[in-house]
Amino acid sequence: MRIDVVSHVDEIKTEELFNKTVIIIDALRTSSTIITAIANGVQMIVPVETIGQAKNLQSQKQEYLLAGDRFFKKISNFHLGNSPLDFVKQQLNGKSIILTTTNGTRAINKALKGEEVLIGSFLNGDKCIEQALHFKKDLVLLCVGERNEFALEDGLAAGFLIDRLMKHYTITFELNDFAKAMYAVYKFHKNGLFETIKTTETARKLIQLGLGEDIHFCSQINLYPICPCVATHEDITIII
């Protein structure tokens, strides 16, 4: 089985996704938000790229809640932001959410050329890998990144997922060079993972905005035994 890690969303070419399982990794925060939302009873998430698309869809489906951010800040007049803690603190059982984020939801929609698309992070590593291996296809771990650049926390999460593979499965794996690098970086930092994540550019920006609590939450290992999957319902991309 081949495992490719891609450094950020703009590095991926759609033809590289054909007949592969894609894992979207946006550790701070979109992947962690989606996983937390589904784990806490949200029925369905609709990922869209723009604020306009989100508002237009919600005008047709007024029972859906709007959630999202731009550069970590909650969008004005939206019900929820893009913090996983938003989905822990509110009673959202059975609700459907329309989500738009700066980069994460764009990555999800770009990954749709993959055979299967899963959502992964530190929060669900073991279950995510278990689900990915079920499909018996080569893997692409797509690090979302920040502002068209690589984000270290996503690379660490990719290395963590590779570590789960290496520890729990006896399959022979072939890694691309970036996957080898991220695996090595994760192994070097795993005993001080939270302290390392706190030093990243993304974490620094979250702290400046008073959102430092998100960093600790998103750094938890295997908090949720679920793996959200991307599907299509009534010609709409959904996450369940």
Write the element-wise H/E pattern from the N-terminal end onward.
EEHEHEEHEHEHEHEHHHHEE
Strand content: 15-25%
Strand arrangement, largest sheet? 7-2-8-1-9
CATH homologous superfamily annotation: ComB-like
Number of domains: 1
List the uncertain runs: none
Radius of gyration: 16 Å
Amino-to-carboxy terminus distance:
26 Å
Approximate helicity band? 25-40%
How would you state the average pLDDT, rounded? Answer: 96
Using the coordinates above, name the CATH class.
Alpha Beta
Family: Belongs to the ComB family.
Catalytic activity: (2R)-O-phospho-3-sulfolactate + H2O = (2R)-3-sulfolactate + phosphate
Pfam family, one: 2-ph_phosp
Organism: Tepidibacillus decaturensis
What does this 3D model show about the protein?
GO terms for molecular function: 2-phosphosulfolactate phosphatase activity; magnesium ion binding; sulfopyruvate decarboxylase activity. Keywords: Hydrolase, Magnesium. It holds the Pfam family 2-ph_phosp. This is Probable 2-phosphosulfolactate phosphatase. It is an enzyme of class 3 (hydrolase). It is a single chain. This protein has helices at residues 30-39, 51-60, 86-89, 104-110, 125-134, 152-168, 177-189, 193-198, 201-208, 212-218; strands at 2-6, 21-25, 44-47, 65-70, 73-74, 96-100, 116-120, 139-143, 174-175, 230-233, 236-239. Strand 4 and strand 5 form a beta hairpin. The protein has a 5-stranded parallel β-sheet with strand order 7-2-8-1-9, with helices on both faces. Strands 3-6-4-5 form a 4-stranded mixed β-sheet. The chain has a two-stranded antiparallel sheet with strand order 10-11. It has 240 residues and is an alpha/beta fold. The longest helix has 17 residues, at 152-168. It has one domain (2-239): putative 2-phosphosulfolactate phosphatase (Alpha-Beta Complex), CATH 3.90.1560. Helix 9 crosses helix 10 (212-218). The chain contains 10 helices and 11 strands.
